# Entry
Amino acid sequence: MDRTFEKHRSGRGWILLGGLLLLTLTGCDVFSPREPEPPIGDGGSYVQPDTPDQVIENMETAISTLSTSNYRRLFASNFTFRPTPTALAREQIWSGWGRTEEDRYFTSLASALLPGGSHELDLDDATLSVASESRYIYEASYVLMVQHSRQDVPRAVSGRLVWVLTQESDGLWYISEWTDQEIENSFSWSDLKAAFYK
# Structure
């Protein structure tokens, strides 16, 4: 009689265990992998700018990810921007353009992105020259593609830029001066900044 009871109890245990296992596998997704959620903060990687060329790399990454926090970190505290002559004549916003204005334009641009759009900064014909031990001059032609939702603003801009890269007291490199130059009648980076600053 005891052996029959033990067999019955043992069989019931296996059935209960099997039922729980089946319920776990079919009725509950607790242990199944989930789709990754988008990050709450800004994406992209930021390389500590120990050399001038790492500032350029960080700019390209900040553009491709439209990371506002990483973009903000590119600029020296005394940053100044000089627009193209055409943009300077057309807009009255350039006096005293510094980090605050640069951040406002880029944040506005990032908030107008099209879902799934890709963004790219293509720098060509570039030179990096030494002005002093803590000051380098970077010049390049640029084509910037940003997939934004504004119908009145082109998504591609082009021109030529001059960045003065300086090493600050923390030992890191930043963009301290930016001069934008237009190429023929193309929509320039200055024009893009003006459009998204307003």
